[in-house]
Amino acid sequence: MIARMVLNGRPRELDVRPEQTLLEALRDTLGIFDVKEGCGEGVCGVCTVLLDGRPVSSCLVLAPAVRGRAVTTLRGLERDGGLHPLQEAFVRYGAVQCGFCTPGMLLTALAFLEREPRPDRERIRAALEGNLCRCTGYTKIVDAVEAYVRDNGHG
Amino acid sequence: MADAVATRETLRVVGRAVSRHDARDKVAAATAYAADWALPGMLHAAVLRSPYPSARILKLDTARAVALPGVAVVLTAKDVPRNTLATDVPGQTTTVGPLRATLHVLAEDRVRHQGEPVALVAAETLEQARAAVEAIDVEYERTPGVFTPEAALAPGAPRVHDTGNLLAQWRIARGDVATALARAAVVVEGEYTTQLVDAAYLEPESGVAWIDSDGVITIRLSTQVIEHFRDVAEVLQVPQNRVRVIGTYLGGGFGGKEDVTVEVYLGLLALKTGRPVKMVWTRQESLLARAKRHPYRMRYRTGAAATGEIVAQQIELLGDAGAYAYLSALVLLYSTVTAGGPYRVPNVEVQARVAYTNNPPTSAMRGFGGMQTVFAYESQLDRVARALGMDPVEIRRVNALRRGDSLPVGQVVETHVALPELCEQAWAALGPPTPPRAPHVRVGRGLACNLQPYGRIVWLHDWSSAWVGFEMDGSLVVRCGVPDVGGGQASSLCQIAAEILGVSLERVSVHISDSALTPLAGTTTASRQLYMSGNAVLKASRELREQLLGVAVTMLGADAGALTMADDLVRGPGGRTLALPDLLRQCARAGVPRGHLAVYNAPAGEPVDLATGSGKVFPDYTYGAHAAEVEVDTETGVVRLLRYAAAHDVGRAINPQSVEGQIQGGAVQGLGYGLMEEVVVEDGINLTTSFATYLIPTAADVPDVEPVVVESGEGLGPFNARGIGEPPIGPPAAAVANAIADATGARLTRLPITAERVARALGRLDGEP
Known about the structure:
The complex is a heterodimer of chains A (about 160) and B (about 775). With about 160 residues, chain A is α+β, with helices and mostly antiparallel strands. Chain A contains five helices and five strands.
């Protein structure tokens, strides 16, 4: 079946099967590889995308359910062809090691900051609880989010 | 060496917290991980795995599976050209004990652990491949298994392998332990148990194989060891130069991608079908089938004088290898050598054994045998300190190894041991004590130290090679076969080349991890890549510099000694400069190469007789001290981490930000080991094959980790760096156990230290803690 949606700001038609997940549709059908798969059961947060601005595990969303909705992946964060300031902060503060959790982590953090623009470290940690990272120990990820809040007029 | 005396001020790129090129690619989603790869006409593969931990295969019939739509091929053991896979360390030149380790690529008449591969399928779609796996008819006859090392070594136990269940044993004996214990002012006895844990990287095992236009079987995968191309060639029975492995930037490794994962299966399926094939393991499959960290049971008797000095250690280690050897004999060797800790121990006896069982196999994982023992020796030392009324920093200062001392194995410590300052700084970093929040809450602090080798065992004759060269526009290229597991392995090499050749970091491009096109650099394991490949790049860069300056001399009319390379040009006396493109054109005219290949050989030695303590096992060691402050709820047993500081002497930090990242990330993995992680296996059946049941730390489970980076300027790596990949995972479990003891008086000796175990130790719940 054909599902019309808005993908990273652009209208898109997608031929989906009823049992297909959004993750499978994005990766296997559209070749959108900036969405990664970590566990396939909604626990690790690696496959997070924004659905109408809210973070969801794309491995738990059936593809037909995104009809008429807006899906944002990491590539959708680019601003004028450049990196989003939060992406820049992740680089500058060493919040990226293997990088496999990074797309989901960035999207979760941004959606959180939309709702709560001035969080403290404790709140940032709580907001990122659903996104596992095995490399950094989280300290530098929290550093990066905190610095972004401070440097981008949110603080 | 000039670098030995170079201060941070004289370095332009090395020692700076520069942003990593790979981090920029990763935040922009430009990095193509192993699963982010597709080729026209690509098949999808799946593995049939044994549901039983111990069984005979009576019947294996693939007819029904082969007939299903979309199925290209179904392979069983009889289809594998050589069904034996060596699991020895790649590049190994000298046998290490009973290490001729092999396993079957696909099971023949027996399976020895749940998840053991039995058959492979490739089909047009993943759904079809999985349906075909389900349609393979296998008749198993279950056979008795053994599920603990104690049971495996008991008389009459079922044999996991015909060679018997004792896989390996090592022994060290020095001095007179019995007499020293008899004369000691205090003797502390303890038994410690550590659990089975998983590397749990977020990127599951994955790759794509194809037969390239030159006929070479090419496998692009997530691996810490591209040299497994040789093992693939052996299995496929093709010449080694007809298999190429391209390693991707990894989504984490931690030792779990050191052994072969998908590459042999992919090679087989590509060879049999002639088509590109993709294999991506599910998380469940990864947690079920991948080798894990060895559970240990450890018995320690520690004797100390009234001054706190350790006079003797009597140590017994018993590990669970699971069903296949993999690297177990080596892991046990690491444990044996490090079992006494970073301390002077005049009288010591270590008896270490590792046994086959029908549990999931165990092999390499970050810390590699240097980890389990930390929990034991640091708990013991804490108990000695408490018995003598000594401060935790003081007892470690009294016992710390010093240059010139020898380890129990006989290896003389040749570099500075910064343990006293590491302890002081980690302890001080905790700041003023946190007051308890409520009457039933207690707060306590603990300290734990460790030593971890960096670089491989000296009788493996380790080496790494790298090529460094200029393009005509003055941009620089580094080629090195190093797999980048996410620690910044590639970017550190760029810093080193940029430093020596005076090129700005943005003008350096690095090509890594390709067994056909990059000079081989060995494994990204054993905390060895910065040390080994860093030295190879340093050597190549220096020799290239000499080569180029030899030409610059004629152009600038000055001695080579008067020339410097900096700011993307060559500077001579009197303010004269030479642009790199001009120099490179002159090199072309003069027939002087613009690039250079160098090989770095690590210090090599002969195998050591451990029992007689005859000498050097590892090139050198990295030392650390971690301090934890915890809060214990004495009603529920819940332990909350309040503060954590981790100090390591890294020799020199090539990229301080990457070093801090290793320390913080390793510490949190170690905290997961200490407090929550456990692969639960009952009678060989893994009950924790999802991230909903195998719990690793989240952002809300752990506090900020304060990294304390000490630079002694004494290490064997480039610019005197030490390895820092593995060491930070070692101390956390012991630091937390010691903090809990400080808070409550309860001594937890079994990992993970769950709330339930703490509640039992505090008498709030019945049962053994």
